[in-house]
Amino acid sequence: MGKKGGGRVRVVQKGPKMPANPMADFAIPPDEELNLPVKPDSGSGYLIWPMGETITMKYDNFSVIYPNYLDSNKTVKLGRRIAAKDAVPEPTVQDLHEALASLNVRHVIQPYKGYSRDSISRWDNPGRVLVDLEGAAENGIVGMGTDGAFDLDEVPDINDDNDKENNGGSGGGKKQLLREIAKVIPKLPNRQTRIEEKAKAAALEAEKQKKLAIQAEKSAPSKGGGGSGSSGKKKKGKKKK
Length: 241
Known about the structure:
flat, four-stranded antiparallel beta sheet, two-stranded antiparallel sheet, alpha+beta, single chain, 32% helix, 6 strands
């Protein structure tokens, strides 16, 4: 079992040595590992428009607009702020930026901010913009209520009379800006190109699935094929003498 030397006993191991990692055989090879992209910091990547005010702009009091606010595919519970007939399907933060720039409204783009009430949008359609409502009011794009305040951000626009109640009868405010943005977005060239490419990709995928279904149908064994084969065989009879 051991050897004596210098008053000490040295143990000698017998038999096969244990591997360094007993679970090594169950480890996933590096080329098969799923590497998820690192989630960017939500507080990084801010873009200011116009860019000439990148250092001087103070946007602490700007109003927040998420794409959900004017998404016709979202319910009021998921954040839609205007009527569905006035909204647009699947607007992005890039669409908001281009629409606001065309309206000459100062704003800040926060591309990695997610809307907390909609977990799907937080991952599939992130981003928001901070908008200078006072500057938009000075440009005549939005109006204020009789009390000098904009409409309430958390009150959804269910019907056409809702804004008049929130704005002392003026019908302007933040929701008016949302409607103006929604009018501009469908005309944006980048959005039109994106929608066309998305439609082409969907058509190609549908065609691919159709071909796979046809191939699977051809390769599938026909029903009742086994019975017909056995019935086609000739029965053996007795040999004539």
